[in-house]
Amino acid sequence: MYAAGLMHPSREVVRGAALPSEKDTHEVAIKTLQQTKDDAEEIMLLRSWNGKLLAEKFELPEMEIEIERAVEQVEKSIRERKEKAEQERNEKANADKATTTEKR
Length: 104
Hints:
Layout: H1 2-7, H2 11-16, H3 22-35, H4 48-58, H5 61-103
């Protein structure tokens, strides 16, 4: 069921789709590994809409809220990490320019 959530773009499509085969699941795993550049980068696997599907499947309505909250926290963490890395790259580039200018 989880692989189906990664294979399809929306909750409605997943609900109408057949459960993925072992081959489908393997293909999703390979695609995910490629997206993470062999685990070098983090990506979001869950979306908030997956929470409703999982909660329905396990008949745990409170699970939906917890998954949505977790997704928001992880998205924020990934976004902040990317922004910090970008800022550090910019600072390094500016420092390198300043060093090059001083040497002239």
